[in-house]
Every structure is written in structure tokens, then in C-alpha cells.
Predict the structure.
Amino acid sequence: MALTAPPGVFDILPLDAKEPWRSSYLWQHVKQQIRSIAHVYGFREIVTPLFERTELFKRGIGEDTDVVSKEMYTFEDKGGRFLTLRPEGTAPVLRAFIEHGLHQQAPIHKLYYVGTPMFRYERSQAGRYRQHHQFGAEAIGSESPELDVELIDLLCTVYRKLGLRDLKLAINTLGDTHCRAKYRSALLDHFGACKHALSEDSQRRLETNPLRILDSKDPRDKQWVQTAPRIDAYLNSACHDHFQCVQKLLGELSIPFSIEARLVRGLDYYNRTVFEIAAGELGAQNSIGGGGRYDGLLKMLGGPNLPAMGFGTGIERLIQTMLKQNIAPQAPSGPFIFIIPLGAAARKHAFTWMHRWRQCGLSVDMSLSEKKVGKELQYANQMQACWALVIGDDELRQEAVEFKHLATGTKKKIAIENLHGDPLNLCKHLHICS
Ligand code: HAM
């Protein structure tokens, strides 16, 4: 059997001509932009392990969710512990928050992770992978609606700074435990009346968590979901006011949104504000990012009773949307200088020049093959080097070399003794000519 990557996972190559979104320069660009914007918003990076105790996700995400009931990569280690490859980032961040007593250090914590691999055993298809990568942000310690909007604003700013347009923000509220108890019984009445027409999953969820039925993608459930009661009628005044305030603040920041009354999201920990951002270009898997409040989760995992809000956005879908919208940056060019030494003596010189120039931050490469000059120049062009420097015995004898600017064909002769001086002078000289 050929040793290819398993289904649903992929490699990120320096430049992937077939699937450009898997090119590492795009991932670097996106991650750099995200980091700098997250810092402007006061978020600091957190890195948690790739796997956690299975119990964390069962308790944190909810046993009834697809993620926990169907999609987790769980295994028993040699010590008999059940461990799971992280399917999402919120529960691990909270576990670390509790374990390190972060709440004792500051009243509010704003944490982010970027390029973090997540593992879900999903049916793989375009935009849905078994290992995907997220930028996520989690802010812990305030129940102010301003925090909800700050997080949504951060995500929208990231998308905007990357050049994305025409994204649709949908928001909803799930109320608190009191509102949900009433809403739950309304859903029980509604779905109970059509129980036998529902999918098996939804019939089961009717017993365990009827709210989950609203997130069903099964066509058998669709018409019953569409006619289900809406949560707004069951909100208490605190939850109603919170949601009103979120809408008002979004308006003040000129962030357009629509209210999607049946948006519940796929994880059980949410309360009050939930949101999703969709990109039309992505087709079936059009959710590029989403999140919400999870005020009870920290306490449920054994921590202090602190409210929190967060989101996650898939880097794959983000880059795919950038490419579809033609806003992805060009692949970076090759080295500033590519040296093509001909013969042993030239090679010796080239090798030490390359080292010295690199020490000064100049990007330089040299050919290590014995191919003909024409082939080497072709290679230098292909990797988009700026200058080529061919050096052989003749040049050494004449004590001068010629740099060739590959895009324009301009040539520049420089005495070898000048190459031994300050490399920055050489660099300046070549820059002026390029
Ligand atoms: P999520 O909606 O499950 O939320 O995932 C967040 C984003 O990750 C999605 O909007 C999507 O872009 C991407 N994503 C999810 N699954 C896949 C997949 N199989 N293949 C490709 N991309 C995928 C969460 O994970 C929550 N932890 C977000 C959050 C943080 N809520 C509060 N804090």
C-alpha cells in the first residue's frame, strides 16, 4: 500500500500549485496578520497540548453533540488513561486557566491561539477536514455585552484586514439556564408532536437535549426545525436586555448583522450571545468562523464562576475564501542573490561570501550542483531570485564579478575586493540597480 496521508488531512507545502490554499507562505501571512491584530486588541497567546483527558471534552462540549458522540479521536495510552486529540480549543484553554489559577492574576484574561490543529472524525469533503486549524480567542472575566462585541469586532477586523468582503454575520441569543428551561419544554411539545417523523439522532436528542435538534442537518428534520418555536419569546429581561445591548453596540461599530433565531451552534457550552460568520464562496461548508458566550463552562469544569466569550475561525476556510475573492498575496520572491560557482576555487569563495552576507540578513543562496550555467540561471529565474552571480576561474583571475539582475537583464560589475567589505554596501549598491 502506498504511504499517502490518511483521508481528511493534508500537507502544507512551500508552494502548492494544485491546491494553492495549502501553500505555507499564505498560512504565514495569515498567522502574522492575526497575531498583530490580536495584540492590538490586548489578547495574548496561549498554547495547550495536542491531547487532553477525554473527560474534559465530554464534560465541556456535551456528550450529545456530534463532536463528542461521533467525531473524537480517542485512545487509551499505556497507562490506561483515555485521551482525546483536541477537537476544539475552548475547553483546553479553560482547563489551563483553572490549572494555573490565572483568575488570581488579573480580573480579565484575553487569550488567543493561532494555527492550532483540531481533530474531528468528520466526513471529509471540500472545506471539511479531519485535521483543521483554528485561530481562536477566549476572553474570561466579564459579562458585559461590550465583551461580546469586542470579540465579534476582533474577528471582523481580522477578516477585513486580510481583505475579505461580503461576509455575513448572523447572531442569536440562547438566553440563560432559566430561559432555556422554559424554551426546552416548548421544544419538547413541538418536536414531541412529530417525534416519529424526526431522524433517529433527533429522536434521541428529544430525550436528552432538544435544543440540539435545531442544529440538525438531516433533511427529515428540516421542516420541523423551521416551524419550531423561537427563543425570543422565552427570554427573561436580563437576557433580553443583554441581547439588545449587543445589537446596539454592533450598530455603533457599524458592523452589519442579521438575527438568526434558530442559530444554536454545534457545541453545548453556549449561553446568551452566539454568532456565526459565513462566506458565500465556500459552498456547503460556508461557516468561516463562529463563537459565543459560555458563562457557565468555567465553573462546570471545576473553576471559579466567571463569565466568558470566545470564537474560533478555520484557517483553511479563511485562506480558501481569500483565494476565491482574489485577495491572496503573491508568493514571496526567491533569494536576493543566487550564486552560481563554476569550479572548486569559485565554490570556496562563494560559500564564505554566502555565509558573511547571510550574517548581515541578506537572503543569499548558492547552487550546490554541477549543472551548466544556463540550467542554473533557469533555476534562479524559476525561484524568482533577484540577482544572479556567476563566478568561475576567469572572474577570480580578473578579480571582478558580474551580478545579473534577472528581471531586467541589467548587469553590474564589482571588484572582488569590494565583496570583502561591508556587505551592506554591496546590498545598497545592488538595491539601487534593481
Ligand atoms: P466551531 O464552530 O466548531 O467552534 O469551529 C470554528 C470554526 O472552525 C468553524 O467556523 C470552521 O471555520 C472551522 N472548522 C470547524 N470544523 C472544521 C473542519 N472539520 N474542517 C475545516 N474547518 C473546520 C469551535 O470550535 C469553538 N471552540 C469556537 C469557540 C471558541 N467558541 C467559543 N470560543
In short: The chain is about 40% helix and 20% strand. Residues 88-90, 120, 122, 128-129, 132, 134, 136, 138, 266-267, 287-292, 310-314, 316-317 surround histidyl-adenosine monophosphate (CB under 6 Å). The mean pLDDT is 94. The longest strand covers residues 109-119.
